[in-house]
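Supplementary Methods, section 5.1.

A reviewer requested that the exact input to the structure prediction be made available. We therefore reproduce it here, unchanged from the version used in the analyses.
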Amino acid sequence: MRMIIALLACMLFASMAAADDDPQQAIPARLKLMFERLDKPLDIAPVVVQADWAIAGWRQAGRGGRVLLQKTHHGWSIYLSSGDSLKDAGTLEKIGLPASDAAGLAAKLKEAETSLDPSALALFSSFEGTVMMINAASNGAGGHEGHAQ
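The structure derived from this sequence is encoded token-by-token as follows.
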């Protein structure tokens, strides 16, 4: 019986580690852990990745926007939340991304968003301003002021 429990624990750990390695799973899981509530499900799509940077679109309770994430030794951390400004490679460079990563991320986001419903794009665009979150939310400790509750 102990052997079975040990094997199940190893399989669970391995599947969790694999999910952490796949940004398409790790990023939505992280965001949902931080912001999803039973009465307000969080939809995360698309997720695009370039090197150690990612952009994810989110929708929740009639609101939406995009988040810029950075991969650190702790996993994926939210750097900031914004709207359409995250579609622009020049803006991403100003934020601090290397030019090649900024261009790659913007191109991948443009391609990923072509298949989305116009209502989703409208919600992403509705996020006003930019909310820096690297120090607060990246460790799961803070709220998200730009995303009214």
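Residues 3-19, 136-149 have pLDDT under 50 and may be disordered. These observations are discussed further in the main text.
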